[in-house]
Design a protein that fits this description.
9 strands; 40% helix; Trp Operon Repressor, Chain A; two-stranded antiparallel ribbon; Alpha/beta knot; elongated; 2 domains; 232 residues; binds adenine; five-stranded parallel beta sheet; alpha/beta; 9 helices
Length: 232
């Protein structure tokens, strides 16, 4: 997958892509990452990328010209262009999975109070929010989305690691334990040492349900409803 990030702050991403799994994905040519600093497309003397909104209001917004020029330069018309914004649709694991099937993704890491609507109308295919809170920059939201997407590309991590993690089949993950068996008086549940794989699976499924019910009642209800409709 070819990933292009339009950003005024490429540094934010470089640390992430130089570590562990992301850097291995690049080495294995499963992903490539390119940064496009759109400030260089701002042609005025001060390379200004922001301006006041028409109609008044607090803060500054991204101007259309540098972004239009940057996006035209990479022929972004008719490509999948993602704009992380708190006013977008909710970014979910299902969306990450859908986007992981694309050959090319372009992200616009916004800044300031937003960007000129004409950029969205002309280029953006997906306006996505990572949650109901406002971040100070689009870079962190872009990084969150890329992290959730690239790890689902075949070959990046072992398929077994994806099988039972949170959100797969609509439930959260079961509790995990490693050595030592006993630590500060707390023991690992004996069932996990029993070697009885069917029983372990049953225990894990029960724990997934309990955890989902306690932490995410919305997902729990959806799961229960889907089970009922499967049974008819
Ligand atoms: N930019 C600022 N806040 C955001 C959010 N919650 N999701 C996506 N992009 C954002």
């Amino acid at each position: 997958m070819k990933i292009t990030i339009l950003t005024l702050f490429p540094k934010v991403f470089k640390g992430f892509f130089s570590t562990s799994i992301p850097s291995r994905a690049i080495d294995k040519k499963l992903i490539s990452v390119k940064y496009l600093d759109f400030r260089k497309f701002a042609e005025d003397k001060h390379h200004k990328c922001d301006d006041e909104p028409y109609g008044g209001g607090a803060g500054l917004i991204l101007k259309p010209e540098p972004l239009f020029k940057a996006l035209h330069s990479i022929k972004a018309e008719n490509k999948r262009v993602i704009y992380p914004t708190p006013s977008g649709k909710l970014f979910t694991e299902d969306k990450a999975y859908e986007l992981s099937k694309e050959n090319e993704l372009i992200f616009i890491a916004g800044h300031y109070e937003g960007m000129d609507q004409r950029v969205i109308d002309t280029f953006v295919t997906d306006e996505l929010s990572i949650g109901d809170y406002v971040l100070s920059s689009g870079e962190t939201a872009t990084l969150v989305m890329i992290d959730a997407i690239y790890r689902l590309i075949e070959g990046v991590i072992t398929p077994e690691s994806l099988d039972e993690e949170s959100f797969v089949n609509g439930l959260l993950e079961y509790p995990l334990y490693t050595r030592p068996y006993e630590y500060e008086g707390q023991k690992v549940p004996d069932i996990l040492l029993s070697g009885d794989h069917a029983k372990i699976k049953e225990w894990r499924n029960t724990k997934r349900l309990e955890k989902t019910r306690a932490n995410r009642i919305d997902l729990y209800r959806k799961f229960k409803k889907s089970k009922l409709s499967v049974k008819g």
